[in-house]
Amino acid sequence: MSRTPPATLTPPERLRQRLADARPLLGPALLWCTLHGLLALLFFGAPLLASVERLAPSLRPVLLAGGVVQALFLGLLAFVATLPLVLLGRRYALTMTVAVALGVAMLGVDALVLSSLGFHINGLVLAVALQPRALAETGLAPHELAMAALAALAVLSFDVWTGLRFLRRVQRPRRVGRLVALLVLITAAERLTSAYLVFAHGGAVLHAATTLPLQAPVRMNTLLTRLTDRPPASGLRLGVSPEAGAPAASIEPSAVRFTRRPDILLILAESLRDDFFTPQVMPHLWRRAEHGTRFLHHHSAASSTDFSLFSLFFGLEAQRRDAVVGAGRAPLLFPALKANGYRQAFFAASSVDWMGLKDTVFRDVHGGLRTDYEGRSHLRDAEMVKDAVNLARSTPSDVPLFTFVFFAGTHFDYDYPPRSAVFSPAWNGDGGLATARVPAEHLKARAWNSAYEVDTKVEELLTQWEAARGTRPLVVFTGDHGEEFREHGRVGHASDVTELQLHVPMLIFDERLAPGEVDSVTGHIDLVPTLFDLLGDTHPPEKLGDGIPMTRPDPRRYLLTTIGWEPRYALIGRELKVRFGAGLPGTELSDMWDRPLPDAQERFAAEAPRILRRLRGGDAEREESPEPTSTATTPPR
Q1: Which of 328, 517, 632, 634 is the most buried (most CB within 10 A)?
Q2: What is the DSSP string of 276-291?
Q3: Which residues make beta-bridge pairs with 294?
Q4: Could you report the per-residue pLDDT of 470-487, keeping only the tens digit for each?
């Protein structure tokens, strides 16, 4: 058939001609893209197998088959993404094969990033990679990098050449629309199956089902609860994993040896942000802090309670929660305390039932958890204090106690009795939805009053405990996360990685820790190694988890935090904070108080190698460079 010269065609006719030229190539192009999508199994096979091995044998074939479907989806995605190139007519073949080759190269790079950093490529990874000094962290010399680039270019060129020959010689499939619809249906079925398995078997399934890139996590817990009339798995199902009950740390509890055994009181307050710790709001603890150690830049691991408590007791970063508790792993802390003769008790006026913590973090406390307190928050707190004091009185003095108390009064709606109505005007606590019309300062005044009441109850607990036991316990006081009062347009927490939602007080009272203030960045993941260090255990911190002892803080450290339920993160250092992940277009740079920095890009470029080492799992190394002079040691409020 003769072709009309392009010069004589109108624009619509020229477009139709190009589409006609490209249409015969669509079937082979779909097949080519699908074959390249399957290459993801080669790149991500090792992490997929590792995540599936944590599951019961009966689940492994289903998740592996799901991995194949996910790879087919990546191929379909490449085909759809390159469809606009048909407007180029005959040049569609070349441009499509080049785009697909580049996409496969990105898959390979993403696989390397995942194996090295634990993240898929995101805004932070790209920003760090573009910094001049970041390439030095690869350990490759410039000529080695050049050789690697040439080898990659050769492979890509060969792939493009092979693709062009493939498109010219292969004539099938022809019913492209039906095949695309079939792939869409298979992908949807795989996502729905994954959602059911997550509902039935917990977070380890979700971790395995999102190993390959660009796999949107699908949860249908609410719908499936209504359909099946049973609750979803609380992150953990016994028998799902061969690792169920195994400690998450790399040492056995029996190997932990404490050289001293003081009573330990771990006191947690709901939604208590750091700037509430003032002599006006919390006078009793403020006075006690003169003889204790205050960590000025302490941050929760997450702005949501369940992820925060996971990090507190496991000593692991919060984004590892689903994989760890979903596989049935247990915290090292509790069995280690038991092996060293401690009696353990856990009192939670802030109920941990609905968050699944009874079946994950506190599963192995063997009846030592009480969380069935009733009534208003301040009444539940009062009953909890009575239980803790009775425990102190009834336990022989030669039996050391580890006691966890979780105050609820500072959680919304910030409950307190009349004796603590210190700050006014304050919201009266009526009508939760009505808070949209309540001035922010009234909300905060009510929250201050609730913190004042918790402070009073903590003082009562400590005074009566010391009288009953005849000695001062090792005391740790902190908040599970912070709270916002419309500073960023919202009230509450678990919505972002802002300073207000993550920065919490941290006080430690112990004879082995010098009184004073520590201005290094610390976090909830540091509690376990800190306790072990104070009690005399000599295992290196990396054997215990992700944290470092607060007794030996690192001023150059970057702490990784998250929302928890959403993959949005922040790396927090004393000089720079980097926010990245879901809902953010790239990376956001600020100081630790979320204030803009005039030299943010310069700081980021200088810190990129250290950030890269931090993401790769190495500790924040103490370098010979001079310790920085902090520009953000006081809050803006």
Answers
A1: 328
A2: G-STTTSHHHHHHGGG
A3: 507, 517
A4: 999 999 999 999 999 989
